[in-house]
Structure formats: structure tokens, C-alpha cells
């Protein structure tokens, strides 16, 4: 795969037209006016039939072929690029609800749990949150986890707090991850996952945080104080110890499934980065063509040309990383752990650098909201933080390359 096909380009153009018509007019309200993104996201999902495709896929017994997985990946990633040219926060809000939370329930839950809670998230009928990060855990999500589930008559009692939770303030359905307050057969407290409904007694959802960027993606805290949940809220049934090494976890598909899920998450970050890069580059190039200083357009100055050239290198590299990821899927393969981490690391850095350089090309205008690059520069920074910080990616790459210590 060396370029998007004509059909794929048509799809991307249709998404860009939707964004121009439905998102750009309300972008200021989404970013600074406190407007929640879910109505426009539902309209997007309905417009492109994403909800119907989710219903058609639900409950399918036969596994997807490599070509079907490729088509699904393209239909997921390419619209992300188009959406992120204007409003990256929408992708985060939608992705966490439909994919992270929705897929967790469908893949790990019982058939009844999948239909009751998973499918409404995958169709965007309801808003979902995936609650794992805690105030003291950061990148060490499991090692620093303090939230607990204690067995009681008829179910469990949950206590704990979660922070930096996308969709947390508005979520109808929450996938809550914690530790069982008892030791398993291996002497460790197992990781368990529950499905919670908004409004459950003892569950508090905070107001949205004020953030540096991605303001169109509401983020908040969750606090649980003696929250009782019946046993049917335990995702997938009885807990098992968290697997180590190559052990197979319920719903994970083993190490191969985990690797594919890991690569998919990092590919999503690369798609978001590509959208930011494309828009920042287009704005900078247009400005350099028309802005005149010292009697000539600024695009004729070598320093400006160097910035534009660097943007083009970043665009090509990030796009090619996505092409490699998609090409491997088509062949029934997946990126290695190091490759997936490297894709995320490079793409996040490239998007941040390109966005800041676009601000620099536009000078004072770039610092103003009118030209939009200031928002994209703020939005891009989080790509170096969430889904694993740059520092975590570097460690992951090195460890995968080096292999186990002798």
C-alpha cells in the first residue's frame, strides 16, 4: 500500500465535508463554551452508518478475514485523520466511548453483558468511559491501583477514585477497573472489571476539568464510596489473576490479540497526529504563499522553507507508518511491540513539532485563535502523554529490542 485508494479518498472527502458543515460552525462552543460533543458525534455516526455497521457485526460468530480487518481499520483510521484536522477532541471522546469502553464489554463480557451495555456504546446510543487511571498511579496503572472490590451478599462493594477519565462527567456507562480485596491462588489480588451506570448510589462524576487542549473531549474524575453492584456487573464472570508473560487472559485473544490491540491503539494516535500535521502544514503553506514581508512573500525565505520542508517530511513519515500498519493487517500480521511503540512515539512528537512550527510561521497571527493552529498546537501535546507517555514508549521499545535479561 503506497497511497489511499480513490474510494478511500472519497470517504475522507465526505468526512471533511461533514466536519466543515457540522463541526466547524460549533467548534468555538465545543472548545470554549462548554458544549458537550455527543450530539454532533451521534449525527456523525448516523450519517455514515457506523451504528448500523456495529449492529450488523454484533454477535457475528465467524472471525474476520484479514481483508475484512483491513477494511475495518481503514474505515476507523481515515475518518480520524479528517476529524483531527479540525477538532481532535471529538476523536478522543468518540474513540473512548465506542472503541475502548464498548469493545472492552463486547470482547470480555458475557453475551448478556455485551448486548445490554456494549452494543449501545458501539452505536453511540450511550456514552461510555473507561476508568483505570488513579491519582497516584500515572503510567503504572496496575502497580499503583488502590481501588478495590469487596465481595458481599449478592455482589460486590466498590471503593476508590479515578482521574483523567475521558467522558467521565457525562458517561452513561462506566467500565471500572480495580483490584479484588482478596488474594488469588498466586498470592496476588486479581484485577477485576465492572460495568457501572451513571446515577448509581455512591458514584460521583465530577464536572469537566479545564485543560490545556482537547477541550471538546470532556475529562473528569470519578469517586466511589461503598458502591454496591450485583454480581452481574462483574465483566466476564469470576475473576482470575492478572496474566504475566505469555499467559492468556480472558477476552484478550492471548499474546497475539493483546499485541494487535496495543498496535491498534497506537495507530489511532498516529492517525490523530496525521490529521493535525496535515492541517497545520496546509495553513502554514497557504500563509507563506500570501504573507508579504520585506517586499516578498515569506515563503521565499530559506528559514521558512526549511520549516515547510520539515513539515512535509513529518507528514510523509507518519502517513507511511499508517500504511505499514494497514499493510501488515492485510497480510494477517501485526506490528511488533517495539514498532507499535515507535509509531506512537514518533507520530506524537512530529505532530507537536509541526503544530508549533506552524504557529511560528504565522508569527503573531499563529498565536491568535483565528488561524486555528494555536488550538492544534495545544491539542497535539497530549499525544505525547496519553496512551503511554514518550518516556514509557522509549522504555517499551528498548525492552522489546533487548529481550529478557539473561
List keywords for this structure.
13 helices, 14% strand, Butyryl-CoA Dehydrogenase, subunit A, domain 3, single chain, 7-stranded mixed β-sheet, 406 residues, globular
Give structural notes.
- With 406 residues, the chain is an alpha+beta fold.
- It has three domains: 122 residues, Acyl-CoA dehydrogenase/oxidase, N-terminal domain (Butyryl-Coa Dehydrogenase, subunit A, domain 1, Orthogonal Bundle), CATH 1.10.540; 104 residues, Beta Barrel (Butyryl-CoA Dehydrogenase, subunit A, domain 2); 149 residues, Butyryl-CoA Dehydrogenase, subunit A, domain 3 (Up-down Bundle).
- It has 13 helices and nine strands.
- Strands 1, 2, 3, 4, 5, 6 and 7 form a seven-stranded mixed sheet that branches. A two-stranded antiparallel sheet has the order 8-9.
- Helix 1 runs parallel beside helix 5 and helix 8 runs parallel beside helix 10.
Q: So what's the CATH class of the largest domain? A: Mainly Alpha
Class from secondary-structure proportions:
alpha+beta
CATH homology group of the largest domain: Butyryl-CoA Dehydrogenase, subunit A, domain 3
Integer count of domains: 3
CATH topology of the largest domain: Butyryl-CoA Dehydrogenase, subunit A, domain 3
Radius of gyration: 22 Å
Largest sheet: 7 strands, mixed
- Ends distance: 39 Å
> What is the N-to-C order of secondary-structure elements (H for helix, E for strand)?
HHHHHHHEEEEEEEHEEHHHHH
Percent strand equals 5-15%
User: What would the principal axes of the Cα set say about the shape?
Assistant: globular
In the predicted model, the low-confidence regions spanning at least 5 consecutive residues are 240-258
* Average pLDDT over all residues: 90
Measured as a percent range, the helix fraction is 40-55%
Secondary structure tally: strands: 9
CATH architecture name of the largest domain: Up-down Bundle
How many separate helices?
Answer: 13
Amino acid at each position: 500500500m503506497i497511497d489511499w485508494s480513490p474510494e478511500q479518498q472519497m470517504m475522507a472527502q465526505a468526512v471533511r465535508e461533514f466536519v466543515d458543515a457540522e463541526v466547524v460552525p460549533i467548534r468555538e462552543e465545543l472548545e470554549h463554551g462548554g458544549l458537550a460533543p455527543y450530539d454532533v458525534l451521534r449525527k456523525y455516526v448516523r450519517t455514515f452508518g457506523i451504528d448500523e455497521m456495529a449492529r450488523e457485526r454484533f454477535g457475528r460468530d465467524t472471525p474476520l478475514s484479514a481483508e475484512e480487518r483491513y477494511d475495518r481499520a481503514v474505515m476507523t483510521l481515515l475518518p480520524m485523520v479528517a476529524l483531527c484536522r479540525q477538532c481532535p477532541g471529538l476523536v478522543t471522546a468518540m474513540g473512548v466511548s465506542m472503541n475502548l469502553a464498548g469493545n472492552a464489554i463486547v470482547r470480555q463480557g458475557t453475551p448478556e453483558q455485551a448486548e445490554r451495555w456494549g452494543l449501545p456504546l458501539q452505536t453511540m446510543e450511550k456514552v461510555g468511559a473507561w476508568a483505570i487511571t488513579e491519582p497516584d498511579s500515572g503510567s503504572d496503572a496496575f502497580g499503583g491501583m488502590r481501588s478495590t472490590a469487596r465481595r458481599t451478599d449478592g455482589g460486590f462493594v466498590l471503593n476508590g477514585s479515578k482521574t483523567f477519565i475521558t467522558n467521565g462527567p457525562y458517561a452513561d456507562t462506566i467500565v471500572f477497573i480495580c483490584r479484588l480485596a482478596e488474594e488469588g491462588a498466586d498470592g496476588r489480588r486479581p484485577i477485576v472489571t465492572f460495568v457501572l451506570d451513571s446515577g448509581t448510589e455512591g458514584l460521583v462524576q465530577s464536572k469537566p476539568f479545564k485543560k490545556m487542549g482537547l477541550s471538546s473531549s470532556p475529562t473528569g474524575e470519578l469517586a466511589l464510596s461503598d458502591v454496591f453492584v450485583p454480581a452481574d456487573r462483574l465483566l466476564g464472570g469470576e475473576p482470575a489473576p492478572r496474566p504475566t508473560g505469555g499467559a492468556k487472559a480472558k477476552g484478550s485473544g492471548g499474546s497475539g490479540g493483546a499485541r494487535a490491540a496495543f498496535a491498534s491503539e497506537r495507530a489511532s494516535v498516529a492517525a490523530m497526529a496525521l490529521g493535525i500535521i496535515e492541517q497545520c502544514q496546509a495553513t502554514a503553506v497557504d500563509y507563506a504563499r500570501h504573507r508579504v514581508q520585506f517586499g516578498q512573500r515569506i515563503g521565499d525565505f530559506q528559514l521558512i522553507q526549511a520549516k515547510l520542508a520539515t513539515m512535509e517530511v513529518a507528514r510523509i513519515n507518519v502517513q507511511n507508518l499508517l500504511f505499514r500498519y494497514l499493510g501488515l493487517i492485510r497480510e494477517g500480521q501485526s506490528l511488533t511491540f517495539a514498532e507499535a511503540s515507535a509509531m506512537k512515539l514518533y507520530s506524537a512528537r512530529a505532530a507537536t513539532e509541526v503544530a508549533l512550527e506552524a504557529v511560528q510561521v504565522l508569527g503573531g497571527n499563529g498565536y491568535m485563535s483565528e488561524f486555528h493552529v494555536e488550538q492544534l498546537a495545544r491539542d497535539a501535546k497530549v499525544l505525547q502523554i496519553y496512551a503511554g507517555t514518550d518516556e514509557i514508549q522509549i522504555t517499551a521499545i528498548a525492552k522489546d529490542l533487548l529481550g529478557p535479561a539473561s
